[in-house]
Amino acid sequence: QVQLVESGGGLVQPGGSLRLSCAASRSIFSFNMMSWHRQAPGKEREFVGLIGTGGRTTYQDSVKGRFTISRDNVKNTMNLQMNSLKPEDTAIYYCNGRDLSGNVYWGEGTLVTVSS
Fold it and tell me: Which of 76, 89, 112, 116 is a good FRET partner for 12, with 20 to 30 A between their CA atoms?
């Protein structure tokens, strides 16, 4: 059973930064794509950004220039560096991985609250 476990969420003031991590229970080389999604209170889950095996990244327009996704192939983690956070970034952030067989895995999520 593949597990993805998010960490790093918390309370931060507007303009602040947080770094989320997604730890995989097996080598991240087995995932051809990993991504972050978020779900704000009362809203549907939405795509935040993704990273492919070659390191290519794609982001939702609202986070471009503020969020950066990276992979650590040694620690088997995917990270989300979030800068210049806004109250509208408040959400539960989920990690997603799609392996080479097309199976999709989700983490349980980590809560990010941006508030003064």
Answer: 76
48-99: pLDDT as tens digits: 999 998 889 999 999 999 999 999 989 999 999 999 999 999 999 999 999 9
Rounded distance between C-alpha atoms, residue 80 and residue 88, angstroms: 17
Q: How many CA atoms lie within 13 A of 101 on its CB side?
A: 3
Say which residues have a Cβ less than 8 Å from residue 44's Cβ, sequence separation at least 6. none
Q: % helix / strand / coil in the chain, to the nearest 5?
A: 10, 55, 40
Written as six digits, the tokens of 87 are 């109250």
* Location of structure tokens 């097996």: 26
DSSP class of residue 6 equals E
Of the candidates 109, 59, 106, 97, the residue with the CA atom closest to the CA atom of residue 81: 59
Locate 18 and state its tokens. Answer: 């947080």
Cα(116)–Cα(104) distance, integer angstroms: 36
